[in-house]
Amino acid sequence: MIYALLLIPAIAAVLSLIIRKDLLRRLILILASVSHTVITVIAWNVETKSLMGGWIDLDKPGLLFLTITSILFSACSFYAFWYLAVESGKRKQDFEEGLFFTNEPEAIFCSCLMAFLATMTLVTVSQHLGLMWVALEATTLASAPLIYFHRHHRSLEATWKYLLICSVGIALALLGNFFMVIAASVPEVSDKSMILSSMIEQAKLLNVPWLKAAFLLFLVGYGTKMGLAPLHTWLPDAHSEAPSVVSALLSGALLNCAFLGILRSFQVCSAAGLGQFCRELLVLFGLLSMAWAAIFILGQSDYKRMLAYSSVEHIGILALGIGIGAGATFGAMLHAVNHSLTKAMLFMTAGNILAVYKTKNTKSVSGIMTVLPVTGILWIAGFLAITGMPPFGIFLSEFTIVKSMFEQGKAGIAILFLAVLALIFIGMANVFINMAHGKKSDSVNVSDRRESVISVFPPIALGFLTLITGLYIPPVLNNLLHDVAVIMGGNL
Amino acid sequence: MNNTLDTIMIFLVLTNLALLGLSRLGTCIRIVAVQGVVLGLVPLLMNNWHFEIRLAAFSAVLIVLKGIVFPRLLTKAMRDIKTLREIEPFIGYSSSIALGTALLIICMWLSSHLPLPVETISELTVPVAFFTIMSGLLLIISRKKAITQVLGYLVMENGIYTFGVTLVEHQPVLVELGILLDVFVAVFVMGITMFHINREFDHIDTDQLSNLKV
To answer: Cα(B167)–Cα(A236) distance, rounded to whole angstroms?
Structure first.
């Protein structure tokens, strides 16, 4: 089963390179993504066998993050089908500076998309810390060509920053891996393999200073990739220059995978009795990321960058939730689900807006409601969802986290948390409402005023899912989230 | 054996300092290649020169990659881009060396505060590995050319590898090969990107990649 999860996208990646017909390639993209999701759903009900002597296994946290990735990817594959059909063509004119550019060959784009899915799947099923590192670095390499889809100088700049900053960050995480091995090299530890379950079993025996240093390196290394401030600098550039479908995947799936990397090392450290030390660091980075994001969201003039900074904010909330512990851990896990769904929905909607308005400047976009009615509604719904308004899922997860803060007597953090959220709400409301309402911009061409079903259906589906998790968490999901929260040191 | 490893470590320190002080890219590429080859011999050395197919194969792959493939790739990039030297780095060459020396002292101090739980063959490995990582980072931060930044990344990787190979026994080969493969692809992708940067901008000065702000 796990083999199927890994092999389907890998084979599709190779096929995409071989096949000449564009349409067939796009269909394979959809077919592979949907079958990946179907197998993931089956994996919920069937016990999976561990492979390669325990190196690869699907445990509860892995299953949760795999499901998020897989669902997002399916939605994105439909959207990519539309996007590639619209974008195909030889030369294009850049709407910001008027220069001409070509797009990346579609075969490379599709192949990298599938390779991206394969590597992210490998991240979620790795039980061996070294293998996980290999998989995470591979996600960087598979996604770099995706950011450079539009071959012009701005996306190139974003790609270079992404490659270099993330590679350096991930290299630090590799050092963290070695530190972990050194921590385990004390004579008392019998099983020196880096398999998660055996590390956790013998965690108490590990050498504490080296383990602490290892966690720091993991946090900084994977934190770079996850987008924790102040290590997030690649994120707004990459998200704003990449095609919207790639931004959706980067934000919704990739950041979560990097987060899983941090969580794995957190599992080992908290089993070793370093929980408090790790939690304090996570709270610090979480709050810093939220505050940092708030500053850049206020007065942001590019709506894709605004969404990117919003990702930094929500990544901060995830780290904060794990750092607070107890009930907030459950909240953070629920938040990971909701944020991914909502953010992917928003990026796709932003892509639809961009396709018609041909500008990323918030001031030049107005009257989406009259020009594109469905997209306009999605834009407003997405805004309400991402800022944590009921009845959407993010409201529930943020509420759970705040509640747990008050229960633990951490009112100071809670007030800071709410204040930053309020600030972000104001900053985003200003932009989103002005874009949705008002007269239609002069720059909009009347002939562009059409919404194809396939471009609005994926965001509607994702928005609907996050609405469901806000109103009623299905018992299966609730149980899984609960189990993951217990594994990550939270008790309800 | 102890002496050999110590010598290699000192060699690493010297090459790092040389990299910080040199402006000619061709020389820098060659120095990084030599570093890689010397480090490629370390796994054999750690095993007392006993021949073992697994180790020999790993060493061979390492030496071929770091000693032949990477330098070729980078030299080709350098020729295509038609630059021979790094001009006006953010931090000058003599100040880079001074900074490097300061970093070396800091690394010595740092490693004395982080005692190893196991005995090592050479006391120098931890501080030198730290120093190599730091030098790589310094190169990435303080140089303008994309090619020097890739070199910095490779030096940093060499430092991390020093850690891995001298202190971590019984690493599974699969992980090592995976790491190596990732580094290889990373350099490859960076090389391609560099080529595109050159075509798009007619230079590879990354300080002029500054259109995306806030």
So the answer is: 38
